[in-house]
Amino acid sequence: MTEKKTILTGIRPTGNLHLGHYFGAVGNWIKLQENYNTFIEIADVQALTDNFNNPEKVRKNVRELTLDLLACGIDPKKATIFIQSRIPEIAELTVYYSNLVTIARLQRNPTIKTEISQKKEIFGNSGESVTYGFLGYPVSQTADITALNGNLVPVGEDQLPLIEQAREIVRKFNSIYGETLKEPEHLLSNLPRLKGLDGNEKMGKSLGNAIFLVDGEELITKKVMEAITDKNKIRKDDKANPDVCMVYYYHKLVSKENLETICYECKEGKRGCVNCKKELAKNMIEFLKPIKERRRYYENNMNEVDKILEEGTKLAKLEAEKTMHQVKKAMKIDYFE
Asked: Residue 266 class from Cβ within 10 Å (0-12 exposed, 13-18 middle, 19+ buried)?
């Protein structure tokens, strides 16, 4: 019997999940957990790299994020959810790996360069206030992956430079200390980043263009009614282009049974935007219904949620301890063992 490959993926506890997270990542993880040994990291340490002055926010969102993951369909019997900060071996590996990568190489990482430019309000326009922790994110991520012996890391195209840097660090370690660590590979997701209700290429809390999985029916309806449509459609009976309409964009996600009719009526001027939005809101609410039902169950059974986190973290730590034993032996620092 072929041994299952191990997947390591993670998410930062900085807020509740929105539809962009679901369609861009979590929905894929739900499928992957069926065929892979899946570890899902609640990356609280990495969240602190740009939330270091607001630890309460990170702490609160560890449980909120866990609730969202379970509500979406992550099965604790098939996937291991764990808290990054409770695995000290990850921090230790980060220190060792930091000797294997130069500052210049980290500064050239396209993903890091992009994220720094997006966080000017934190680091300032010059970038001189970039913290060591933020710049070293690829090193920390390498420690996450290798601590759990991850074979595969599900990523989008924008995250590929991080995986390549992880591979470089592993190769450098193995070239110096002998074949010890697995060189991880990316598992490229073909899911595009979900656009916001305002047409922005990115859906996000700070942009005010996201529908969150915890949003109530009234709030979902309000947000959908404010979504951008074809600006050239002035009157109800005007023909429109559904390809530039965010309402149709979301219909493609949650209204698949009626999609051809929606598209036809839009193009022929037989569908008003108000009614189209109301239909989308109704379908969106129906789509999120099972997610909300599962969340309510776990909200009423928080002891079960805490147990899932505790047991998952214990399992992850056992794996990390095995890796650390091998690493220390290879590095000749396995004193007294």
From this structure: buried
In 3D space, the residue among 204, 209, 215, 217 whose CA is nearest the CA of residue 278 turns out to be: 217
Q: 62, 17 in Cβ contact below 8 A?
A: no
Tokens 């032996």 belong to residue: 329
C-alpha–C-alpha distance, residues 107 and 234, integer Å: 48
Residue type, 337: E
Which residues lie across from 18 on neighbouring strands? 212
pTM of the model: 0.92
The answer to whether 200 touches 246, Cβ cutoff 8 Å, is no
Interatomic CA distance for residues 141 and 162, integer angstroms: 8
Tell which residue, 189, 127, 185, 122, has the closest CA to residue 158: 189
The β-bridge partners of 81 are 40
Separation CA 329–CA 335 (nearest Å)? 9
The mean predicted confidence, pLDDT, of the chain is 91
